[in-house]
Amino acid sequence: MRFRIAQLSGDGIGPEVMAQGALVLKAVGQIYGHTFELENALIGGIAIDKTGSSLPEETLKLAKASDAVLLGAVGDPKFDDPKIKERPENGLLAIRKELNLFANLRPVKVYDELVDGTVFKPEVIRGADFIFVRELTGGLYFGRPKKRWETATMRKSVDSMCYNDREIGRIVRIGFELARSRRKKLTSVDKANVLESSRLWRQVAVEVARDYPDVTLEHMLVDTCAMRILLTPRDFDVLVTENTFGDILTDEASMLAGSMGMLASASLSGIPQPGARTFGLYEPIHGSAPDIAGKDVANPIATILSVAMLLHFSLGLEREAAAVEKAVSSVLKAGHRTRDIIGASNNPVGTSEMGHLVIKALEG
C-alpha cells in the first residue's frame, strides 16, 4: 500500500527525533511491503524565521492532502518575550483547529523494565496502563474573549473557558468508545464544584453514558485526579478531560513512565473505529528541549510510538503498529536507555542509536 505522510519536524530536538521516527516508518514499509512518501514542511519557530508565519499556508495545504501528519516539536526560547505576537506554539494550536483535530489520545504505560528508574515505589506504579482523551480545540486555549489591555491604573488580561454540549459530547463519546474496547471504565475529569463549564461537562457526560450501559462512569475533580494519578495510577483505565486539565495531567502522568520522552500522542478528527481509518496528527508529548538539541541525547521512543499510533489509527495497519510497539519493548528489555531513563545497570545510547536498535528489533 502507498501512503502520503506530512513530516513536520519543527524546532529544537524535533528534527532529531523525527529522523528516527521516519527511519522506523521506512523500515516498516520495507518489511511489510508498503510505501510511505514523507514530505517535509515547516511549522513553529523555524517557520516564523523562514516565512514569518508559525503555520505557513503550504504546510496546511500539505497536511490536508496527506493520509496523516507526523510532528516533532515546536518552541524556541527566543520567542519567549510576552510582547511577541507570532509564537511557535501558535502554529500547533492553529493546525489542530484547521484540521479539526479535536481529540487527543495520550496513552500512559509503565514498562516493567523502567519501574525501578522512576521516583515512585515500584509496587505503586507497576502495571499502570491507562489513556487520556483530551479535548483539543476548545476551552481556555481557544475561547473568546482572549485579550490583554491597560487602563490608567492597571494592566489586565482575560482568557475564556468556553464549551458547548456538542464539543463535550463528541469527546466524551470517544472516551466511552475506548473504554468499551479496554477495561470498561471511564473517568470524567472536571472542576464542577467551581466552574460552570465543568457543570455542563458533567451533565453531558451523564447523558452520553446512557448509550454505554456496559461502561462504568465516574466523575473526578481535577485536583483529586492529579493526586490519584500519583497515588493509585492502576485504578485508571480511560480518562476524558477538557483541554487545559488534560495538558497538565498528561505531563504529570508522564513521570510514571519515567520520562516525557516515553509518551506518544494522537490528535484525531473523528471517533476511531476498529478497522477504519481516522485522519490524525501524531507527535511526542515532550517539547522542543532546545538545551539538548543537536547533542544526540534526546529520547526518540515517544516519536517512534507515535508512529505506531499513526499506523494503527490513520492507516489501519494494526499488525505493523503492534510490531513497532513490540520492538520498543524488546529494546528496553535488553537494557538500552537514553539518558532521561538511564539506570546504573543500563547501556547508555544516543538518539540515533536508539532508533537503530528499534529498527534492528523490528527486522527480527
Give a verbal description of the structure.
The structure is a single chain. By secondary structure, this protein is α/β, with parallel strands linked by helices. The chain folds into two domains: 1-105 and 263-364, Isopropylmalate Dehydrogenase (3-Layer(aba) Sandwich), CATH 3.40.718; 119-257, Isopropylmalate Dehydrogenase (3-Layer(aba) Sandwich), CATH 3.40.718. 39% of the residues lie in helices and 20% in strands. It contains twelve helices and 14 strands. It has helices at 14-32, 45-51, 57-64, 88-98, 122-125, 165-180, 196-209, 222-231, 243-253, 301-313, 318-333, 351-363, and strands at residues 2-10, 35-40, 68-73, 103-109, 129-135, 147-150, 155-158, 185-190, 216-221, 238-241, 264-268, 280-284, 336-337, 347-348. It has a ten-stranded mixed beta sheet, sandwiched between helices. Helix 7 (196-209) links the parallel strand 8 and strand 9. Helix 1 packs across helix 10, helix 6 packs across helix 7 and helix 11 packs across helix 12 (351-363).
